[in-house]
Design goal:
Helices cover about 5% and strands about 55% of the residues. The chain is mainly β.
């Protein structure tokens, strides 16, 4: 089916559900988002320390056409302030370490949608965040968000079962619409995403299948199928909790991809503790066969594999074994975390890649203003070079962004 066909189908579905029961209501809502980030970047093989001062402004508005029928539009503008003493990945400032936040102006979201709490559908440009955002994400850490053009929908098949069906025909990438290479700004796709959530007596079980044909860059045409089990339970008198994530997936080349591969993926994580302080241990493994690595081109990177962002997954894959502590304080709603990562290849007999320590601190001043510090220290062994990055962020939000 063509892109126009999907849009017409979305319109037909919208007319068919116009009299559904009231369980969700849209209201007219403006959105203003302002985020300033100060990045200090050090890389051992470069003499100059990088300094990136970037400012992002997002302006959006949600029009409630009826209680369940709405339209949303949002623009994003990113500035580089005080000169550019960093490599913004455009190739113009290469002597400095990289921070992939080039200047940009774009229409970051524009959709028409219906949602009654039992059925929802959106057609247009939108953010897409699935599960833990590993495979499909708006990549909110980057100043330029990642958006997808297409039709997304969900249907509740019962009180505990939800089916998601999405079709995407373009991804608008985090380099922004002013990036010199047009083939890096956006990729033309034919993507079908199926997602089924089943609430169990203990946790939630998710099954998914993602089938992506990439017309712009065929090596990113992949088929990914997997299952995920997440949950948490109170222990003892309810003051402590045990949480877990178990996920397994498999990825193959799809459609026009010139390579042939079959690669495994798994994620195991266990958490235990109190609200004030908790601990977690985990392992994420992304397969590689020596020539091709597990593909995460449409998902999030910063929340995985360490904050420094050293890794595009190597050909021999990436095993990330991590552990850390995290918690919160009532003063200024302060939250914190400390994580250690140990990186190694999945296949082959080569040495480990290195390790990283990440520390974060976030203060919520009020409902609209937050301050944040993040620090990452990657110590190289057999991959890349040692790097250290420090970020200071201030973010103001007015209204709610309908993601």
């Amino acid at each position: 089916m063509t892109g126009l066909g999907y849009i017409l189908l979305a319109g037909l579905l919208l007319t068919q559900v116009a009299h559904a029961d009231d369980t969700t209501s849209y209201v007219n809502t403006p959105y203003i988002g302002l985020r300033y980030r100060d990045s200090t970047l050090h890389q051992d093989n470069l003499a100059d320390t990088g300094h990136a001062h970037t400012l992002r402004l997002q302006l959006g508005y949600l029009w409630a056409l009826t209680p369940h029928f709405a339209a949303y539009a949002e623009g994003t503008k990113v500035w580089s302030l005080f000169g550019r003493q960093y490599n913004d990945t455009t190739g113009r400032r290469t002597p400095y370490p990289a921070e992939a936040d080039p200047r940009s102006s774009e229409l970051s979201s524009a959709w028409l949608g219906y949602d009654d709490g039992q059925f929802g559908i959106r057609a247009g440009r939108q953010y897409l965040n699935l599960d833990d955002k590993r495979f499909f994400s708006a990549n909110a850490w980057r100043q330029n968000p990642q958006s997808f053009d297409g039709v997304t929908s969900y249907l509740k098949l019962g009180s505990t079962t939800t089916l998601g069906l999405d079709w995407i025909d373009q991804v608008n990438r985090t380099v922004g619409m002013d990036f010199p290479d047009i083939n890096q700004r956006r990729w033309k796709l034919d993507g079908k995403l199926l997602h089924l959530d089943q609430v169990l007596p203990l946790g939630t079980l998710t099954a998914y299948g993602y089938f992506i044909k990439n017309f712009t860059l065929a090596t990113n045409s992949v088929r990914t199928e997997g299952a995920r089990w997440t949950g948490n339970v109170p222990l003892q008198d309810g003051s402590t909790r045990l949480s877990w994530t178990l996920e397994g997936a498999h990825q193959n080349n799809y459609d026009n991809n010139p390579a042939h591969f079959s690669l495994p993926y798994h994620l195991f994580e266990l958490g235990y503790g109190l609200p004030a302080i908790s601990a977690r241990l985990g392992e994420e493994s992304l397969g590689g066969n020596g020539h091709t690595a597990f593909n995460i081109a449409y998902g999030s990177g910063h929340s995985f594999d360490g904050w420094v962002g050293v890794f595009s997954i190597p050909p021999h894959g990436l095993q990330d074994r991590y552990g850390g502590v995290y918690g919160g304080l009532s003063w200024q709603h302060l939250t914190w975390l400390l994580t250690y990562h140990d990186f190694a290849p999945v296949t082959g007999s080569g040495p480990r890649y290195g390790d990283e320590i990440d520390f974060g601190l976030r203060a919520t001043i009020d409902a609209r203003l937050s301050l944040e510090l993040q620090y990452g220290d990657y110590r190289a062994d057999s991959f890349s070079v040692s790097q250290r990055k420090l970020w200071l962020l201030a973010e103001y939000r007015y209204g709610k962004q309908p993601i």
